[in-house]
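Support case: user asked for a sample of complex input and structure output to validate their parser. Sending the pair below.
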Amino acid sequence: MDDLREQVELLESTANLTATINDVQKAIDLLAAARAKIAADQQTAPLTLAKLQGPLKQAMEQATKDLKPIYSGLGKYGKALDKKFKDKPLPTAENDALSSHPQLINRAIAMHLLREGQFSVASTFLEEANRHPPHPEPTPNTPNPYLREAWEKEMADGSFNSHKLQKQFEEMYHILHALRQKKNLAPAIAWARERSKLLEDRGSNLEFELCRLQFVCLFVGRDEEGFMDMTDSAVGPLRAWAYARSEFGPFQGRYARQVQELMGAMAFFPNVVDSPYRRYFYNDSAWEEVANSFTREFCSLLGLSADSPLYIAATAGAIALPTLLKLQNIMKEKRTEWTTQNELPVEIPLPSSYNFHSIFVCPVSKEQSTDQNPAMMMPCGHVIAQESLDKLSKGARFKCPYCPSESHPRDAKKVFL
Amino acid sequence: MAEITTPKLNAESHLLLDQPLLRLPYELSRRTFKNAQRYLDRDTKDLLATLQTTTASATKTSAPTATLDALDAMIAKMQGLKRKLEVLHDDENKINKSSKARIAHLQELFEVQGLEDVRYEEWSRVRLARLLVDYLLRSGYSESAAHLAAEKGIEELVDVDAFVACQKIERSLREGRRTNEALAWCAAHGQGLKKVGSSLEFELRLQQYIELVRAGHEVDGGDGQKLAEARNHAKKYLSGSGDFELLGKAAGLLAYRPWDGVEPYASLYSPSQWDHLATLFLSTHHTLYSLPPRPLLHIALSAGLSALKTPSCHSAYTSASGQANTSSKSVCPICSTELNELARNVPYAHHTKSNVENDPVVLPNGRIYGSERLQSYNEKVGTEKGWVRDPVGGAAGEKWRESDVRKVFIM
């Protein structure tokens, strides 16, 4: 990289058109001087003009000569680029399995912009995309587009419901803004309370976490809108107490212990800093944690992942690409492309945060379980794939490959990971 | 059994997607340089020639005003040249500045510790914005592209202007059915076109010929004037190509009218020729400026979808993992609405080892969970002691006795 930077800096500082422009100016000066002379004394015209020939030619030659450093500078920079990208070919169209679905990509982008809170860009985009719907450009050798056209139509005729989605994400950003910037929990608590049942079903303790934070806030002297109230140090704990009495009732069942702890802290109110409850009251990351947990729940309830899938997929793609290109070169010799296969032929090493599903690989056949070849658990508790089970058992009692127990294939049970 | 490996970040090989980022400004710089050279060469030649003739005429006759006028013209010409060079100099500065910004942006990647470094995430978000802008520009959504670039503050890392210029010419062909913009572009890129052996200029000239012939046929009674013009055009621009089969077809156009519907002439007359020209122009443009033929976003996404996809993402059965039924987990990006349909056609990732939660147990309905997650879920929803619920079923779903939950062995 340093090499490239040096080359560009060289172009910028010395190898540019400044010298040539100055040369041209010199030529203009020469011409102007000659003109002045002739205008003053017309008799000198032939002589002046004849004398002008040489210098003017020289000036112009100098101008051309001064282009040379640019030429060689560009040449060197070009070479440095070639070197940098020597073994990194430009990705070709063969790696592109998506050109047949421009509508789906557009939708993904629109949703990405909305969820990132870029509402004005999103509306510019939707407007433009509806004005000029894209043309699919299928790549040869890639599977036919899967057509369930509902979405494509919605995008095409402009009824893609960005409005609803935008409203939802606007709400999310509104709540997040209140949480992060204003330390105001009220909108988040209102949101969580409305969805109390849903959140509870998911085993989410978001609502309680929010209320607990509200309690802490009141305790240390903020009012319900997040403003600090400095009038009296005893006011905070009293407010918190009142809040707990009115709000914590529904949490008694599931969060009895946590509520007790908060109540216990009341006893230490003049000096919480030195009490065992300090961690609840002076925890700077609590706001960020609650905000993240809120984002996750909000998106999950919409059936969306918490981080932009487009971001995750593009990043995973960049990580995977070197491996895939290497693979492509090998497969080219065999005249197939990876996009036509059901499964990638090599493992792509991704960071563990990119694992979202459990993976079952049959220990016998080394294949992943699929709908057609599901994971089966034998009575002994070992799991193998259906096909392996059929092969091993041939329909009769057989021994588990991993322990001494025997069983009949019909006793094996389909399991889901 | 979950493997804890963090793949290392290899910045060098990570730059695969970023070559065009530096290539395009480089090609633009070369273009600027060539233009400067061309202007200078042409004007120098003119200037010296004019000076010579002026000198000659000044010695012969003595019409002083003529000499002064000639000198004024020369000065004006040089000032014009200087202005043009100054414009190019501004471009040059702009390009160099953006090249420097891009190199600095790529340099950041070399300073990132690993894939889980926060700075990598920041960098990758900028990259996504770049890829999106590239996609938007290629799809012709230049307003959105400019808007996004401005909002993200990455104007120096994207090439809105270059694409807008390219798109203008493309539209002039596809929608305006005009060849002049494209031909002007060909003239400016003559050398480059010759180098890659492009047939763009020839095809544009052929289209001009076709349009002349069409006009000739459409003029009722056709006095042949238009057709004669077409013949001259062909003589001038087409006969040198040496492709006699095509020339034969072109000649046949003179005999067959557009509405006769006789092949192969009908397809030459067809308006789809313009789409073909527009596409040819785009691919020629992209080759000349070292731009990949397809949006980089497609390339990154196809690879990413495959790397992330698992058989469960499009399974008919509800999987126990991946779904966000429990609040500890986020929805899988491939299962998320945005990408699910797109990912349907790509292959799923290859795995050689099972990767399941620690200490897996199976519920009587066949779903497998890590026992810890199952337990904490049931605590949170407040399932009665001694009973278990499936997170997929929710707090009101079926419940089983704890003793019915079995250990399962996944090798």
